[in-house]
Amino acid sequence: MAIGKRGLQRSRRRIQVRYGEKTPVRTAFTEDVHREGLFLKTAQPLRPGTRLCLELLLPDHGTVTAQGQVRWARKVPANLIRVAKKGGMGIRILKIDAGAETFERYCTQLGT
């Protein structure tokens, strides 16, 4: 568990996430998760301010659909994405459309 810049406890977890501006068409994995947001590791981050549709595939918990917004992004060349720190985008969760209780239980288990 790590504490981010904003003092929020973040849990390092790798969760598959499908995302996109209108529909979830791209796939990436989280590096850390908090009930208010997550960090997606990707070589193709979207611009800050972009609103996203998200599908979080929680292990043994099912799928959570949510709306989010890119808060910050750092582009890293695709061949360096595995070794570079924080290549991707930080996403703030704005609204959970389906699976709110599931996501809350998951975050409680993580201690975030």
Secondary-structure topology with pairs:
Elements: E1 2-3, E2 9-10, E3 16-20, E4 26-34, E5 37-41, E6 51-58, E7 62-74, E8 88-98, H1 100-110
Antiparallel strand pairs: 1-2, 3-4, 3-6, 4-5, 5-8, 6-7, 7-8
Describe the structure.
The chain is mainly β and 112 residues long. It has a single domain (2-110), classed as Thrombin, subunit H, CATH 2.40.10. It contains one helix and eight strands; from the N terminus they run ββββββββα. The chain has one helix spanning 100-110, and strands at 2-3, 9-10, 16-20, 26-34, 37-41, 51-58, 62-74, 88-98. The strands form two sheets. A six-stranded antiparallel beta barrel has the order 3-4-5-8-7-6. Strands 1-2 form a two-stranded antiparallel sheet. A hairpin with a 2-residue loop joins strand 4 (26-34) and strand 5 (37-41). The longest helix is centred in the C-terminal third of the chain and has 11 residues, at 100-110. The radius of gyration is 13 Å and the shape is globular. The N and C termini lie close together (9 Å). The model has no long low-confidence stretch (mean pLDDT 83).
